[in-house]
Write a structure and sequence with these properties.
The protein starts with a helix and ends with a strand. By secondary structure, the protein is an alpha/beta fold. Mean pLDDT is 94; it is low at 1-27. α8 (292-302) runs parallel beside α10 and α10 runs parallel beside α11 (401-408). The strands form six sheets. The protein has an eight-stranded parallel beta sheet. Strands 14-18-19-25-21-22 form a six-stranded antiparallel beta sheet, covered by helices on one side. The protein contains eleven helices and 25 strands. It has helices at 3-19, 78-86, 140-150, 165-176, 183-190, 217-229, 253-262, 292-302, 304-319, 354-369, 401-408; strands spanning 29-33, 49-50, 72-73, 76-77, 91-94, 153-158, 201-204, 238-241, 271-279, 326-335, 374-379, 390-393, 396-399, 416-417, 420-421, 426-431, 434-439, 442-448, 451-458, 465-471, 477-485, 505-507, 510-512, 515-520, 524-532. The longest helix has 17 residues, at 3-19. It is globular. Bound molecules: alpha-L-arabinofuranose (AHR). The site of alpha-L-arabinofuranose has 10 residues, from loops. Residues 52, 96-98, 206-207, 331, 380-381, 386 line the site of alpha-L-arabinofuranose.
């Protein structure tokens, strides 16, 4: 940033700070991008998904049944398949969540009519008079069918909490053993799938510090080793160990220290799960109706994820300096208190607004910037739940504002991270504690061939932000396309009756030699796709 501009921005920020909680914003922000120095590949897996047997996620959200009048492909909601394909969903995590540590995979195979009805962990959260009995109509074959339709890699969470290593190994063999080898492969073939599923991603338990067994990290490390030592070698696995509750007040570093300390001498996992919820359950903050302070509070808490990633990565490096184990942020999203469910039994479903879309943009920018550390991430959860891309109830279906951010960030998937320099200008914003400092903008950039993608979020409720993106190293901008997701109402949402209220619109971008110029609307996420020479 030019000295004059930086001084101006700093002055504006300072004025905001002096003036109290009124938001302030910098002007004429300059960003420097170095496409010639592109870094790590942003794994497409960072844009992954999670669906759990919980409320209306699987039954009705994903699975409408083969005899349903709702358009479906073998029982799977067709609109869901089409939209997941459209955004290039790279993976889907299943069957939980907390549900996974009570799930026995054999209950979900074979003739649908003969499958047992079983207890679901989420029974405890159901409203009085409603129950969560699991019908097991959606099992491993149905899940793999969904993955194939979408083109997504399956990521299975195995039952460590109430299962055994043998049950886990049998599930792996059932999924991956080639036809004609073991009896489990023959059983899979008899159930309609002669070809192995080739499942590579396996979570060894879920939240083992909580609903997955209330264990200490050392106890879990012992179990982890027992579960993976005899892992059947059909498909080279990517094993994910349970990691910390990243949204704990202390970041839960103790879990990471304890687990890796107890793993000394053993084969490290490929992935180490971090759960990070922007968690408003213990507060009065609501999903659909909120104040300006509550708008900013979501971002203030959401961006703490960056420090959580850095802290755990540093801690892991003490035990594994070569960083053979990567982070897997396999649950993330904004979790509000109950009250905006789309149906009484659809527990954890919530109204998704423009605020959640901006949180998504900031989260993806964090993932992109740490592409060297993160192997995978999974939004919690894709449909009818926390931070969802879709809401569905019977024949009704709607894409939320979060969906559009997934769509807008598609070009980053598999592209290489471009170093980005911009002055870290913090501004004073209203917050639940009165006021707080928040970065005035979030950004990340990537390149594939000569196609540059830049994503920018302006959280200000007050002011648009003129931005000049300067390309270094002789790169020249040839042509650019802009797309902005915003709305004049910060609480704007898409509903079954108004499904297109929040959607991206073409946004003017000017190219001038080594520079791209645009103005970020207030309260917006903006995408720039630019061809460079
Ligand atoms: O996503 C909802 C729940 O949140 C998951 O089941 C659990 O892993 C987490 O606590």
């Amino acid at each position: 940033m030019k000295r004059r501009t930086f001084a101006k921005a700093a002055a504006v920020a300072a004025i905001g700070a002096l003036a109290g909680p009124a938001p302030s914003s910098p002007a004429d922000t300059e960003i420097e991008l170095s496409p010639g120095d592109a870094g790590p590949v942003i794994s497409p897996q960072l844009y992954g998904h999670f669906i759990e047997h919980l409320g209306g996620v699987i039954y009705d959200g994903v699975w409408v049944g083969r005899d349903s009048s709702i358009p479906n492909v073998g029982g799977i909601r067709k609109q869901f398949v089409d939209d997941m394909k459209r955004i290039g969903a790279p993976n889907i995590r299943w069957p939980g969540g907390c549900f996974a540590d009570g799930y026995h995979w054999r209950d979900g195979i074979g003739k649908a009519a003969a499958r047992p009805r079983t207890y679901n962990y989420w029974q405890r959260s159901m409203p009085a008079g409603l129950d969560a009995t699991e019908t097991n109509q959606f099992g491993i074959a149905e899940f793999l069918h969904l993955c194939r339709l979408v083109g997504a890699a399956p990521y299975l969470a195995a039952n460590v909490g109430s299962g055994t290593p043998q049950e886990f190994h049998d599930w792996v063999a059932y999924c991956n053993a080639p036809a004609g080898t073991v009896s489990l492969a023959a059983e899979r073939a008899a159930n309609g799938d002669p070809e192995p599923y080739g499942v590579r991603y396996w979570g060894v338990g879920n939240e083992s510090w909580g609903c997955g067994g209330t264990m200490q990290p050392e106890e879990y490390a012992t179990l982890y080793r027992r579960f993976v030592t005899q892992f059947p070698a059909y498909t080279a696995p990517f094993l994910v160990a349970t990691g910390p509750r990243g949204h704990s007040a202390d970041g839960d570093i103790g879990w990471t220290t304890g687990f890796f300390g107890a793993m000394r001498g053993a084969m490290p996992p490929n992935g180490f799960s971090v759960h990070f919820y922007t968690d408003f359950r213990p507060t009065a903050v609501k999903a659909g109706d909120f104040t300006a302070a509550e708008w900013y509070e979501v971002f203030l808490r959401g961006v703490r994820l960056e420090k959580v990633i850095e802290d755990h990565w540093r801690e892991m490096g003490k035990f594994d300096p070569a960083h053979r184990t990567k982070l897997v942020v396999d649950e993330w999203g904004v979790w509000y208190r109950a009250g905006s469910e789309i149906a009484p039994g659809y527990i954890l479903s919530e109204t998704i607004t423009l605020r959640d879309a901006l949180h998504t943009g900031m989260t993806f920018d964090i993932f992109n910037r740490h592409a060297d550390k993160i192997a995978m991430a999974n939004v919690a959860q894709t449909i009818n739940c926390i931070h969802s891309l879709f809401l569905a109830r019977g024949a009704d279906f709607v894409r939320t504002p979060v969906y559009h951010v997934f769509d807008m960030y598609r070009s980053h998937m598999g592209a290489r991270l471009v170093p980005l320099k911009s002055p870290v200008v913090e501004v004073n914003v209203p917050a639940m504690a009165g006021s707080a400092r928040l970065a005035a903008m979030s950004a990340s950039a990537s390149i594939r061939d000569r196609q540059l993608t830049v994503t920018l979020t302006n959280p200000s409720l007050e002011a648009s932000m003129p931005v000049r993106i300067r390309l270094t190293g002789g790169a020249r901008a040839l042509e650019a396309r802009g797309l902005a997701l915003t709305h004049q109402d910060m609480r704007a949402t898409n509903t079954f009756t108004k499904p297109e209220e929040v959607k991206p619109m073409a946004h003017p971008v000017k190219v001038a030699g080594d520079a791209i110029e645009l103005t970020l609307p207030k309260q917006s996420v903006t995408l720039i796709d630019c061809r460079i020479a």
